[in-house]
Amino acid sequence: MAAERTYVDFVPSHDLLEDNHKHTLVVNLTGFKKEHLRLQIDKSGRLRVSGERPLEGGQWRRFRKEFQVPEGCDAGGIRARFDKDGVLHVTMPRLTPLDLEDDPKAAADAEAAQHAAAAAEEKKRHEAVEEDARKRHAGREDGHARDQGEGARQAASAGRQAYGFARDRSRSGMVRALLLAVAVALVGVAGLYARYRWMDQSAETAPAGGAIVGLSDY
Asked: Is the whole-model pTM more than 0.85?
């Protein structure tokens, strides 16, 4: 006589994912095999997923879970796939794929991407404006420095010209002073010569006796 089965019931963890083309029911069934599972859909659009597998000591582990098929899905196109990690994927395709305008999440993601792109473009433009302002400021500083250098060179040139003019005037003054000194000296020499000639003529005047009288110093 076969031993009576005893069951251990549990509720598997699950999640419902969706995109523009389908809904996907994901059920975690670790330890189960494909032959342990059963999927049914009734006329009211309810999806029933159930399964049981043996445990030690004549016990069986089992579950039963019903899901409402989302509106707009193609019940005839529902497919199930059980992977080696013990995860059941039930795909429920949409009758009409959604556009971005009909999908709030997709529309929000697209809008966020547009805002991010606009912010990046604005940041790039702002950086370009700042770089252009820095270049113009640097150019003005260079021009000011060149103007100051040119002014300094002009001032130095004017100083050198003034110094040359003063030096030329100093030389002209020295020449005139030298010429004046030479002229004075010549005048003095001429006066002495005339005086000497005058005195010499007086000395040559002889007395009537014909003796020559010598001159002496007092």
From this structure: no
